[in-house]
Every structure is written in C-alpha cells, then in structure tokens.
Write a structure and sequence with these properties.
The chain is 17% helix and 25% strand. It has 6 helices and 10 strands, in the order H-H-E-E-H-E-E-E-E-H-H-E-E-E-E-H. Strand 8 and strand 9 form a beta hairpin. The longest helix is centred in the first third of the chain and has 15 residues, at 3-17.
C-alpha cells in the first residue's frame, strides 16, 4: 500500500473512531474501499477542447448525425475510500473514435480523413450529492500501440486534480498484451481498472452499459494538508 493510501486510511479511521485506531489496529480495514489506481494520462488529452463539452459524446451540439460506434452508457459514482459520495467533482473522459483517432492535433490533424467528425471525443460531468456521473459514448476500441480498448478518466475538484486513470474492458483479449496496463504489476490493482460491459437486452440498436465506481485515495483537503 502506498504512503498516500495509508495516510488516507488513517484519516478515515480516525474520523470514524478516534482512539479505536490505536487500540485495535486494522479494525476498520475491511470496511474501506480500495482506491482506483492511477494510470497515465497519455499523450492525447485534448490540446484543443471542443466547444461542446457535455456528457453526450455521440451527438455534437444540434447535429442529428450520431458518431460511429457501439453506443455505451457509462455510469458510476465518485466515492471516498470510506464510501462517502463526493459531490461537486468534475469527471472528464476522453477516448479515440471508432476509427482510432483522438481529438488531439498530433493525431487528428494528420488523419482528418479517418477522423469521425461526429464524435465529440471529450466530455465532462459534475457529480451531485450522490456522487453519481453518467456519459453516453462509444464502446472503446484498440488503436496501434494500445491493444487494450480504454477510456481515459480524470477527476477534478476545486481546482485540484484528484485522479487520472483509465477504464478497460474486463475480459478483452488485448489487455494482457497492453504495455500500459501491464505496468500495473499487482493483479488486484489491475482488477480495479476493469469494467464489465453488458449488452442492453432492451436496445434495438445494440447498445452497451458499464457501471464503474471511481474510488478516490485523496480529497482536496488531503492535497492541501499533505
């Protein structure tokens, strides 16, 4: 466990029980959630953010032409390790389009013919009191150099970056060949980056859903104090 994780766990336990922390070490260990591991931002965080930055990446503004790809409803909550919902956190996601092109000048400028101009490529959502977030996007696809399809995620609050990570598809064959994913040596930590993508039985157009809770190992207060 990292020093930061131990620090956060200690703060959480002391808040819950004060002196109990010292008399019964580990008494609350099983009650704490496991923090979502950090994973690289990568080279393609948008260097020119789109004018439309809402949580629907399938349609841009008033366009009626949807993006190419398998529509996916991504939902979840932002929580502390104690399970407390984080309100007012800004959740950002970005990913390549169905043609494996990112919304970044180093990628899209040289591959304009391949880029899906109807895919927003980036979106954000501010959590409410339940810590919940939701996006409509496409099921991620692999691209040259990254055999594991993934969605990039960044969580911000009060001007502080709390977490940058990636969501991968559980069971995808490319995961074990993906160099970035393999940098996470602990298999238990790897499991925390995997999401279950399910086909929506009621959907007539083959939509998917994925619920992925984001567990923060630190808060703005921790950042300020630590």
């Amino acid at each position: 466990m990292s020093l930061r994780s131990r620090y956060v766990s200690r703060r959480s336990v002391m808040a819950a029980g004060g002196a109990v922390f010292f008399t019964t070490p580990g008494a609350f260990a099983d009650e704490l959630l496991k923090p979502t591991p950090r994973l690289t931002e990568g080279p393609f965080y948008p260097d020119r953010l789109p004018l439309d930055q809402d949580n629907d990446l399938i349609l841009i503004r008033d366009s009626t032409t949807p993006a190419v790809g398998e529509i996916t409803h991504l939902t979840g909550r932002v929580l502390t390790v104690a399970g407390t919902p984080v309100r007012g956190a800004s959740v950002e996601i970005w990913q390549c389009d169905a043609n494996a092109v990112y919304l970044h000048s180093r990628d899209s400028d040289r591959r304009k013919e391949q880029q899906d101009q109807n895919f927003q490529g980036y979106g954000k959502f501010e959590t409410a009191s339940d810590g919940g977030y939701r996006f409509r996007t496409i099921k991620p696809v692999p691209y040259p150099g990254r055999p594991a399809p993934h969605i990039h995620i960044k969580v911000m609050q009060n001007g502080h970056e709390l977490l940058t990570t990636q969501l991968l598809i559980r069971g995808h064959a490319g995961n074990e060949r993906d160099g970035v994913f393999r940098q996470v040596r602990d298999t238990k930590h790897r499991d925390l980056l995997l999401g279950d993508f399910h086909k929506l039985a009621e959907s007539k157009i083959g939509e998917w859903s994925c619920n992925f809770d984001i567990i923060l190992g630190q808060t703005p207060a921790d950042t300020k104090e630590g």
